[in-house]
Amino acid sequence: MIISFLKAARLRTLPLSISGIIVGSFLGNHFVNSQIDAVSQSVFASPIFWLAIITTIGFQVLSNFANDYGDGIKGSDKNRIGETRMVSSGKITPKQMKKAIIFTAIFTLIVALFLIYISFGKENFGYSILFFLLGIASIASAIKYTVGNAAYGYIGFGDVFVFLFFGLLSVLGSYFLITKQLNFQLFLPAIAIGFLSTAVLNLNNLRDEEQDKINQKNTLVVKLGTKTAKNYYFFLIFGALFVSNIFVIMNYQSAIQFSYLIAFIPLIKNLIRVAKNNNPSELDGELKKVALSTFLFAVIFGIVNTL
């Protein structure tokens, strides 16, 4: 049973989910260090960083459990390409998955409350309320992606959720938790992470297009069609590259800041494969490559822009 829940958690999605936290935390910690005369503190020594990582992983696992449950009870995972889903395969019952969703939601909310308290304390009650509401919204959005009659993943709004929560909110939110300020230049790397995270979802939906049509799961790929969806995918990858370069140019110190471009080498190779692809099942192997490339981008980008 434990193995089944680990499979339902989709561990391979976790590096992608924390990419925004890495970027926002590195840049936020760098800003704080630049404002003090004392010895600089590593971002890895910050409890805010680790609590933000755990909270985000909680949201991702919650989303994966809810996705497995929602698609499973609706029959959308029958004859799917890629990893076997636990509810549809019968390895986890809907009742068991429902309990797991509730437990994960409660656990994640508790960790989020610790994160909010450590970041804002009693002095910034307004900020605490704001981030608490954002936490509730994150939980609700993760569940409503595929669960319920009005699941927005079935009407083409999954891309919006991923871009907002795993891009903008992840980067800007983690930066604000550390600095208590909002730097509007941070929208650029936030958009980059949002684009790359959305690209992973888009690639997933390209792989599942035919099955989603059968199950009336109207993802953006189903609505756009294969050709337009591929063009959209190319826009997301090149858009991430463009806005990242703009941020570095605006904050240029040395050429080493452009070393994050290494992460785009496998992404460019991926674009070529996607462009030539006529067999959706072959895209399954590309998903992990894009997710790990996004994680690599986040790590390198965060490090070289805080040296």
Q: What can you tell me about this protein's structure?
A:
With 307 residues, this protein is mainly alpha-helical. It has one domain. The protein has 14 helices and no strands. α6 runs antiparallel to α7.
Layout: helices, strands, pairs:
Elements: H1 2-9, H2 14-17, H3 19-34, H4 47-74, H5 86-89, H6 94-120, H7 125-144, H8 158-179, H9 187-207, H10 209-214, H11 220-224, H12 226-250, H13 264-276, H14 284-304
Please give a quick description of this structure:
The chain has 307 residues and is mostly helical. It has helices at 2-9, 14-17, 19-34, 47-74, 86-89, 94-120, 125-144, 158-179, 187-207, 209-214, 220-224, 226-250, 264-276, 284-304. Helices cover 72% and strands 0% of the residues.
Query: Major sheet: size, sense and barrel closure?
Result: none
Number of strands: 0
| Nearest-integer average pLDDT | 90
- Helix/strand order: HHHHHHHHHHHHHH
Low-confidence runs of at least 5 consecutive residues: none
Instruction: Supply the helix-strand structural class.
Output: mainly alpha
Computed over alpha carbons, the radius of gyration is 19 Å
> Number of helical runs?
14
Global morphology: globular
- Into which percentage range does the β-strand content fall? under 5%
Helicity range of the residues?
A: over 70%
How many structural domains does the protein architecture include? 1
The end-to-end distance, rounded to whole angstroms, is 45 Å
Please name the defining characteristics of this protein.
single chain; 307 residues; mainly alpha
